[in-house]
Structures are given as structure tokens and as C-alpha cells.
């Protein structure tokens, strides 16, 4: 019995850095922009490449675990994760850091399915397995919630590279523990490993994302950007067509004929888009507009992240008492009102109102997320549960990746549109200052005239605050429309298929 819980402790130890790394860089955006001289587009890639690559690699790495055993998979995954952490910490350019984050995602995509496989194989008793899975889920949510706090503390005291270096001792301890404690696994060489499909899917998604990001840079390369985006869409369409015809598909797209699963997947993606995108927006605004330190910014948003940790237990209690339709509608509906409320309050003079809305937002989004899981898993048979779970996992990671993209691009576009540049700037300086608030600050630091520098900084802050307001009103309005869609299209009871 004791060895089971030792194995669970190892699983928690290996899963913690994976979940923390998903959000730890959110408070580091201004620091990275300054230290690595990154542009806004590069910053978005640094943050969201992790989720996007993980989304493409989760399924094939799960299949690889079935083939070689989760012990071997997790040792390989931890080794890659540790080396990638060192590579990231030593990065001297944005491109190096983007590559390191992509490598981190590959290691994480090995660790994540290995942790679930380890729980499934170690805990045969259903009650013990449910308890272990509950602890696993809590660690995942808590790690993501603590990411900004840990990142903020480290950035306030050390060089930014330390946010990655802290992974290395954890990785070394876990590898030694796994080698000593975990028994040798039975290998299944007949298990297919769809690595080629995963790479194809990841390339398609990254091309679409690249086309979308670069088309909105307003630098005259629109045809080139559109061509890349169209190529990505074409590859994705080919992938879906091949998967529909395949006898052993990597993703079972036939499951999307089930209405409740589609609605659950939409909810999961939307919740992750809004939660991750909003966190990115707020942490930037707190540091760039209000001059918060990274640690103070992490503490300020702690009510949002910590309340999202306990929303799951409330959702679990409610799910046995109210229908999925009511639970999902309430979760999305309340979150939409929170966004509209946050668009109209002042973060400095009305701090307690902001924190109250943060808590309500975290709870409502997590309730919506748990209701989506319930819908997805209840809508399929037990034989289809693994495939449905894989779709949900991909939805989570894509939602997190697209949250950074959508909110990041909205910040850039609205900021560029609203900034009222002072007279006296050269044409190249105007273009640079319009691209992002961090670039405007850089231009201001190069100016000899103090009054002109102060005017530019003031204009940049005002434009960013305007972007904050427009984005939150837009997000709240879209969530309100989604609330109506869920209420209208969701059956009061989900039937098993």
C-alpha cells in the first residue's frame, strides 16, 4: 500500500513543473521584452508555443507510452524537459527561447500521459484511483494557478532564466525516484505510434497561427501571411479527411456527431481562451501601466487563479443536483457578467471590487470547465472514453494557446488604433511606438527631449487601458452570446451513446 502512495508522490512531483510552466511566463512579458529586445509577435510565440505543440503531441506520446511503458516514457520526457529548461534559461534571443519552449512542450507531452497511465496502472481499486485522480487534477489546476505567483517572486529576486532553472532539481530527483521505485513495464511493440500524423497536425496548426499573427502586424506582408495561413488550413483539411477514412485514426472525428460532446468541447476551448488570455492581458497592464513588480502583479491576480482551484469541488457538488444545461449556462453566463463588470472598474481605486469579480470569474469559469468534462465523458460509451478524453485534452491545450493569440492580437490591434502619438517623432519611431506598448517605452527611452518622452509614455498607457476596456466588453458580449447558444442548443439530459 505504501509503495502506491510513493508512486503517486513521484507522479505529483513530475506533473507540477509541467502545469506551472503553462502560466509562469505570463508575468514575465515586460521583463522578456526588455531583456531580449523581443517584439510583441515574438512574445506571443514564446508564451503560446508551449500549449500549441503540446496539443499536437499529447496523443502520439500517449500511444508511445502504451508501446514502451510509462516508466521509460517518463524518464525520456523528464530528460527532455530538464535539458529544455536549461536551454531556455540560457537563451540569449527570442528565437532561442521559442525553440526551448517548443522542446519543453515535447517533454511535457510525454510526462502528462505517463502520469495518467501511472495512476491507472498503480491504483486498481476504483475508490483509490478516484482519490489519486482527484489529487492529480488539483495539482494540475494549482500548478497553473501558482505559476504567476512563483514567476513573480523569482523575477523580483533573480534573473528571468531562474524561472526555468527551478525545474532542473525537480527533474533530477524525479528521474532517480522513478528509476528506483517504479517497477519495469511490459512493452507492447504492436502498439502503433502515430508520430507522423502528430507532426503533420502540429505543422498545420502552427502555419495557421503564424498566418494569423503575421497578417495583423500591419507591415505590408499581407499576401505572404495569407498564403501561409491558407497552406495551414489546407493541411488541416487534408488531415481531417485522412483521419475520417483511417481504420485507426489518431483523433476520432466521428465522435463530433455527438451533440453534447461538441458543446462540451466548445465550452472547454472558450473557457481556456478567456482564462489564459485574460490573465495575459491583466499581468501586462498591471506592470506596464501601473508599474507593479512581477511579484505584486502575481499576488494581485491570485484571487482569480486560486478561486479557479476550488470551483471544481463546487461544480462536483452541483452536478449531482442540477442539469448540465443549467450548470454550463450559469458558469458561462456569470463569467460574461464578470468581464463586463471588470471593463468598468478601476483596478487601483476599486481593488476590492476587482478582487470580488476575480473570485466570481475564477469560480464560474471552473464550473463551466467541469461541466464540459461531464458533458464530454457522459455523452460517450466506456469504449470511447479514452478517445473523448484525448479530444478534451487537445481542446484544453488549443484553448490555452489560442487564448494568448486572440487576446494578444486584440491588444496589439486596439492599442495601435487608439494611440495618439505626440508630434515630433520620426516616421520609423512612430511605426515602432504604434506596434506595442513595450516598443513605445523603448522609443521613449531613446528620446533626448524629456517632455516628448513623457507624452509618448502617457499616450501608450492610455491606449493600452483603452484596449483593456474594449477587449473585456467584447469578451463579455461574446460569452453572453455563447450562454444563449448553450441554453438553446443543449438538451436538459445527456444520453449515453
UniProtKB/TrEMBL annotation:
Subcellular location: Cell membrane
InterPro entries found in the cross-reference section: MFS, MFS_dom, MFS_trans_sf
Molecular-function GO terms, alphabetical: transmembrane transporter activity
Any Gene Ontology CC annotation: plasma membrane
PROSITE patterns tied to this protein: MFS
Pfam families in UniProt: MFS_1 (PF07690)
Superkingdom as given in the UniProt entry: Bacteria
Topology in membrane: Multi-pass membrane protein
Organism: Orbus hercynius
Name of the protein in its database record: DHA2 family multidrug resistance protein-like MFS transporter
Amino acid at each position: 500500500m505504501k509503495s502506491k502512495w510513493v508512486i503517486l508522490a513521484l507522479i505529483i512531483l513530475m506533473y507540477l513543473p509541467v502545469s506551472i510552466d503553462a502560466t509562469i511566463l505570463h508575468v514575465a512579458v515586460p521583463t522578456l521584452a526588455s531583456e531580449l529586445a523581443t517584439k510583441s509577435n515574438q512574445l506571443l510565440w514564446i508564451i503560446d508555443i508551449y500549449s500549441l505543440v503540446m496539443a499536437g503531441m499529447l496523443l502520439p506520446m500517449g500511444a508511445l507510452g502504451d508501446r514502451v511503458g510509462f516508466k521509460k516514457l517518463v524518464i525520456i520526457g523528464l530528460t527532455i524537459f530538464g535539458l529544455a529548461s536549461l536551454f531556455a534559461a540560457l537563451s540569449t534571443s527570442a528565437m532561442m527561447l521559442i525553440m526551448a519552449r517548443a522542446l519543453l512542450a515535447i517533454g511535457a507531452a510525454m510526462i502528462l500521459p505517463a502520469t495518467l497511465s501511472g495512476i491507472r496502472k498503480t491504483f486498481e481499486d476504483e475508490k483509490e484511483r478516484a482519490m489519486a485522480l482527484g489529487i492529480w487534477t488539483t495539482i494540475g489546476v494549482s500548478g497553473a494557478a501558482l505559476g504567476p505567483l512563483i514567476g513573480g517572486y523569482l523575477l523580483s529576486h533573480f534573473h528571468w532564466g531562474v524561472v526555468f532553472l527551478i525545474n532542473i532539481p525537480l527533474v533530477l530527483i524525479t528521474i532517480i525516484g522513478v528509476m528506483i521505485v517504479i517497477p519495469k513495464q511490459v512493452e507492447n511493440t504492436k502498439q502503433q505510434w502515430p508520430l507522423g500524423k502528430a507532426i503533420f497536425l502540429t505543422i498545420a496548426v502552427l502555419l495557421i497561427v503564424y498566418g494569423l499573427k503575421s497578417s495583423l502586424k500591419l507591415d505590408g506582408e499581407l499576401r505572404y501571411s495569407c498564403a501561409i495561413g491558407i497552406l495551414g488550413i489546407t493541411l488541416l483539411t487534408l488531415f481531417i479527411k485522412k483521419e475520417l477514412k483511417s481504420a485507426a485514426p489518431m483523433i476520432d472525428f466521428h465522435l463530433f456527431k455527438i451533440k453534447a460532446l461538441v458543446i462540451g468541447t466548445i465550452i472547454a476551448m472558450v473557457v481556456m481562451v478567456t482564462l489564459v488570455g485574460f490573465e495575459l492581458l491583466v499581468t501586462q497592464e498591471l506592470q506596464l501601466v501601473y508599474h507593479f513588480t512581477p511579484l505584486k502583479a502575481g499576488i494581485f491576480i491570485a484571487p482569480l487563479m486560486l478561486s479557479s482551484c476550488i470551483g471544481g469541488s463546487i461544480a462536483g457538488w452541483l452536478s449531482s443536483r442540477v442539469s448540465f444545461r443549467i450548470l454550463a449556462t450559469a458558469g458561462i453566463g456569470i463569467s460574461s457578467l464578470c468581464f463586463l463588470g471588470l471593463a468598468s472598474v478601476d483596478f487601483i481605486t476599486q481593488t476590492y471590487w476587482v478582487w470580488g469579480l476575480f473570485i466570481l470569474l475564477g469560480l464560474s469559469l471552473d464550473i463551466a470547465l467541469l461541466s464540459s468534462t461531464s458533458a464530454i465523458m457522459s455523452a460517450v460509451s466506456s469504449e470511447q472514453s479514452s478517445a473523448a478524453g484525448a479530444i478534451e485534452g487537445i481542446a484544453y491545450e488549443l484553448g490555452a494557446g489560442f487564448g494568448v493569440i486572440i487576446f494578444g492580437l486584440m491588444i496589439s490591434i486596439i492599442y495601435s488604433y487608439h494611440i495618439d502619438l505626440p508630434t515630433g517623432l520620426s516616421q520609423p519611431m512612430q511605426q515602432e511606438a504604434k506596434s506595442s506598448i513595450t516598443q513605445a517605452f523603448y522609443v521613449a527611452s531613446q528620446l533626448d527631449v524629456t517632455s516628448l518622452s513623457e507624452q509618448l509614455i502617457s499616450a501608450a498607457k492610455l491606449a493600452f487601458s483603452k484596449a483593456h476596456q474594449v477587449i473585456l466588453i467584447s469578451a463579455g458580449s461574446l460569452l453572453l452570446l455563447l450562454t444563449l447558444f448553450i441554453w438553446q442548443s443543449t438538451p436538459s439530459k445527456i444520453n449515453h451513446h
